[in-house]
Amino acid sequence: MYKIAVIPGDGIGTEVINSGVEVLQALSKIVPNLPIGFNHFDWGAKYYKENGVMMPDEGVDELKDYNAIYFGSAGVPDIPDHITLWGLRLKICQGLDQYANLRPVKLLPGISSPLKNVEEKDIDWSFIRENSEGEYSGIGGRSHRGYSNDTAMDITLFTKQGVERIQKFAFEIARSRPRKLLTLVTKSNAQKHGMIMWDEIFKEISEDYRDVNTDKMLVDAMTTRMVLDPKSIDTVVASNLHADILTDLAASLSGSMGIAPTANLDPDKRHPSMFEPIHGSAFDIMGKGIANPIGSYWSAVMMLENLGELQAAQKLMFAIEKLTKDKKVLPKDLGGTNTTKQITKAMIDIISGKNN
Ligand code: IPM
Ligand code: MG
Predict the structure, then answer these.
(1) N-to-C CA span, the chain
(2) Spatial separation of the C-alpha atoms in residues 129 and 169, rounded to whole Å
(3) How far is the CA of 269 from the centre of ligand 1 (A)?
(4) How far apart are the CA of 336 and the centre of ligand 2, in A?
(5) Which residue CA neighbors atom 9 of ligand 1 most closely?
(6) Which ligand gives the minimal distance to the CA of 262?
(7) Could you tell which of 54, 73, 89, 245 is best to mutate to test the pocket of ligand 1, judged by most ligand atoms within 8 Å of the CB?
(8) 280 in ligand 1 pocket by Cβ < 6 Å?
């Protein structure tokens, strides 16, 4: 029995994760030998208001007993974002050393890109985001607050070990994909210490991966390439913040933020990995029941792959693609009019063969 820790969190996170759990339950009835047990955790903003913390301190240890974590989102309008983020999502990612953040980007059948003249096969990218240090190190300080010389500092931390492990992971992913092309994104013209180390380590590691083609882009130029020449991109590795920004762009270019999935992985399998849609709490539509749950379904596909349940993963991905291709039941951000509940039902019908 797979033990899944479910942390819906806040905002539309709760809506889409509950939908994802229903879909996974339906899937586990159809795929032979896919017993999944879910344990729900009520961590998040409500928990914070009652207990002063987003999750208990011993929570990270508790999660170690699970095979995977299925996460929604952290954040509400009336608590500062850095509190909700650091108190929950980053606490888990960093506490379990989920250092590799994998973000696949694909134009799904039936979905149109805001880019002109782009076909389905033109956007098929794999972004690898460093997920344990960099601009999200949490190191820094603030002094003279409230005075005219108010001063603030955030330190970007890169360690050799941290950069090597994420780049090796990216080379492995690039090697496993048909095009075997890895693009390193940095800003080593302006950020002249850490990013130069990224460049140097990349050159060294590439010696061990001679079958993988490589190229390098500065992050600003990368945005242009994504828009003007999407076909030229395959696998991309970048620092925590650079990849955070690029993957919002990537999600939008592939149709909507509502589709995009992510996996916070511990590739060394010491700890469970965490799977979540990348869209966040979406204050503007939360509580309305109209959130797009596709990102949470696709994240569940990644979770099943991580568990080694490839047949189930394929079946779920096929169902997502059927849903988008048929265009009969779609959320608002994809041009439809359906609610999260209606989409959940449509997915369950596809999975259980009622809709073929
Ligand atoms: C993401 C998100 C988060 C991040 C937010 C919610 C803090 O944007 O997963 O891309 O910046 O890491
Ligand atoms: Mg982001």
Answers:
(1) 30
(2) 10
(3) 23
(4) 24
(5) 278
(6) 1
(7) 89
(8) yes
Whether 283 contacts 291, CB under 8 Å = no
**Among candidate residues 227, 173, 162, 169, the one with its CA nearest the CA of residue 198:** 162
**For residue 356, pLDDT beyond 60:** no
The closest-lying atom of ligand 1 relative to the alpha carbon of residue 240 is: 12
Closest-CA residue, ligand 1 atom 1, reads 278
Q: Which token pair is 115?
A: 């880019």
- Domains 1-100+270-356 and 113-254 belong to one CATH topology: yes
DSSP 122-190: G-EEEEEEE-SSEEEEEEEEEESTTSTT-EEEEEEE--HHHHHHHHHHHHHHHHHSTT-EEEEEE-TTT
Pocket flag, ligand 1, residue 85 (CB < 6 Å): yes
| Per-residue model confidence as pLDDT tens digits over 298-343 | 999 999 999 999 999 999 999 999 999 999 999 999 999 999 999 9
Query: Which CATH code, of 3.40.718.10, 3.40.630.30, 1.10.10.10, 1.10.287.110, is assigned to 1-100+270-356?
Result: 3.40.718.10
Q: What's the pLDDT tens digit per position in 206-247?
A: 999 999 999 999 999 999 999 999 999 999 999 999 999 999
Q: Ligand nearest 83 Cα, by number? A: 1
Please identify which residue in the block is written with the tokens 């990270």. 60
Mean pLDDT of the chain: 97
| Domain map (residue ranges) of the chain | 1-100+270-356, 113-254
- This prediction has a pTM of 0.96
CATH of the structural domain 113-254, one choice from 3.40.50.2000, 3.20.20.70, 3.40.50.970, 3.40.718.10: 3.40.718.10
pLDDT in tens, 248-278: 999 999 999 999 999 999 999 999 999 999 9
Once rounded to an integer, what is the mean pLDDT over residues 93-115? 97
- Indicate the pLDDT class of residue 45, thresholds 50, 70 and 90: very high
**Rounded to an integer, what distance in angstroms lies between the CA atom of residue 346 and that of residue 240?**
36
Q: Does 244 sit in the ligand 1 pocket, CB within 6 Å? A: yes
